Amino acid sequence: MALWSSMSAHLALLLCFCVLLSRVNGRSRKVSGRSGGASATKGTGRYRHGGKVCAKSERAGAATTEGARSSARASTARAWPRINSRSTTCRLGTPTATARTRRPPRRDPSWRRLASTALARARRAAARARIAVYKAVWGSARGAGAANTASLLAAIDDAIHDGVDVLSLSLTSEENSFGALHAVQKGIAVVYAAENFGPASQVVRNTAPWVITVAASQIDRSFPTMITLGNKQQIVGQSLYYYGKNSTGSSFKPLAFGGLCTADSLNGTDVRGQVVLCASAIASLLAPFPVALENVLNAGGSGLIFAQYTMHIIDATADCGGIACVLVDSTTALQIGKYMVDASSPVAMIELARTITGKEALAPTISVFSSRGPSIEYPEVIKPDIAAPGASILAAMKDAYVFGSGPSMATPHVSVIVALLKALHPNWSPAALKSAIMTAASVTDELDMPILAQGLPRKIADPFDYGAGYINPNRAADPGLIYDIDPNDYNKFFGCSFKKSVRCNATMLPGYHLNLPSISIPDLRQPITVSRTVTNVGEADAVYHAAIESPAGVKMDIEPSVLAFNATNKVITFQVKLSPLWRLQGDYTFGSLTWYSGQKTVRIPIAIRTTIYDFYTDVA
């Protein structure tokens, strides 16, 4: 079943996180009219918030905003600058990007400027969604978003009271894990961003086992930008360069070398009206390019060719102050440098970026900035859970459209898929929805090769990069088997970590015994047996066989290795025995367990670390 074409669902957003409302018996739930809330205005097709009326979507069939609230509890005027208002408008952009699902009007200047780089076929994720917006993140004096725990918990509580089905939170706040647990125990799926601290390990955020944590990936779209040298040699870089208001245009201009393009390296060098070749001295992510661009602009340059380690982070090239700009790798920069040495008067021309999609672009790959596991707080849980598109996503920002990257852009993709699954399976629990998404994920790209993870260096992705893999919504609609969890079980396993009033029980089971669609054991010394229970949600009479891929240095045994379901036997428990093959203070190794029946496969990732000593630190 094609999930996208068969579903209608309703989105709700927390500003700056989002909440998804679902249709119930043909009716949509309404955001209640409590103080500070939003309520329906009878007969107008509009919704009222604090005396202000917000129109529903102007396009039939588009996602509609039910209402909006703001929360700034426990906040003082000193804590929150006056630049903040109690308006529910989010000026940071991420929730706006989630909510603004319809095609932008061509009268929008930003749409016209981006037309040459982003035009492609698009389809709405949840065309008949209902959106409720809860503003809990506020701009700071520096322009960054900030929130306190009280405001976020108040917004979550409002969303629970309003009866939403999905919370979409593109933010970081570990303190809210118990608030998210409260939502999950009320039947609400919670989707969080993994954050932007990659590619280092152990930096993933929002790692509570009851939430869905989303990593960011590249999509099958790239923006090749042609550089033509004076000797007619053509070199391809990457850019979002288009003709802007003050664009210098595409024409040959003198080519100069600016070194690192610091203020000092350009001091005394006349680069006015020239294309400047700059090189990054470090394999950094975002900092060198904006600094080099600012210095080239201040020096009067008319173009920028910036060389760096391949990162596939090109959003900054969408607005280069009116000059042509393009990113290249170090090998390409060397070719340009050789031409500059040989030519008496080197020149170069940077053309407009163009777009290629499909199998011509290597995708998906895990973005370099996406935070990696393992989780420090919950090492017995594989995090992130899933990867989704989150790089160079065209999205709404204030009254314009821009390219944005990060797990915060990936999170809404997963949220709307969860909403669609909830509409298709209204009785499924948050754990069942999470299981369907994870067990149906893909671990190969469009060329049927292993998904790669960008980093230093690039490598084959593992569960700490993408969890179960890259999201596959159509397969998730019919997963075959699900790993369900009673919400009260979270208290049994993790009560000590989020309730200070709960006395830790020495006999409490380790977290890897929770019925998650993954297995993570951070300290395997002796053989350990874990149980998992699967529920058949597919054809009543089905037989599944086990296929195991053991982590290196670990022996895996499954009992039983065949699961036979029928109309009366829908739930089966099996055991996985994991035994270390060597005594070693090792690192994590990875494997998987897959149940297959005909064309249907149900896969979970496995991460095991063999140990000898407790709290062993490897700092060499």
From TrEMBL:
Signal peptide: 1-26
Domain Subtilisin-like protease fibronectin type-III span(s) in chain numbering: 514-608
UniProt region (Disordered), positions on chain: 29-110
Record's keyword terms, sorted: Hydrolase, Protease, Serine protease, Signal
Claim: Protease is one of the keywords in the record: yes
Low complexity bias locations: 60-79
Family label: Belongs to the peptidase S8 family.
Protein name: Uncharacterized protein
Species of provenance: Miscanthus lutarioriparius
